[in-house]
Amino acid sequence: MRTPGLELLVFVGLLILAASVYAVGILSIPLNTPIKAARVRLLSLAGFLVIGALIFLGIMWPSIYSLIAALMIPSLLFLAAMIVRPKLLEGRSTLRLYLVISVAVSALCWVTEAIWLAHIGAVTLGRG
């Protein structure tokens, strides 16, 4: 029987990387200057994928993650809208902060799920 330890570790690592890139990228855009649409679209796509992964986690394993995923649906919709219309971000510092916190919470949920799976022995990184 094969355990998905390494795959889960790589997946969670990629989620942390995407969340970090999103947070640094969005927070580095100055508030009072015109935004670059392509940059905001790519960053919004990264955030969308991270929060989408949390919603997938909430659907797969109904638990506390389901409640957190339900609370993240508005941020998922905001990110989807910003992929289409990046100008929605212009001059809205509270929206930026809300989305960064949402993406960080989503990545943190996957980290805690991976730690929990490793703790109960459902995931191992070695052979056997």
Description:
With 128 residues, the chain is mostly helical. The protein has one domain (5-120). Helices cover 74% and strands 0% of the residues. It has five helices and no strands. It has helices spanning 5-27, 37-60, 64-71, 73-84, 93-120.
Keywords for this entry:
elongated; mainly alpha; 74% helix; 128 residues; 0% strand
Mean pLDDT: 86
The overall number of domains is 1
Number of helices: 5
Strand count: 0
Element-by-element helix/strand order = HHHHH
The chain-level structural class is mainly alpha
Residue fraction in strands:
under 5%
For the terminal residues, how far apart are their CA atoms? 8 Å
Radius of gyration: 16 Å
Most strands sheet: none
Query: Which residues sit in consecutive blocks of at least 5 with pLDDT less than 50?
Result: none
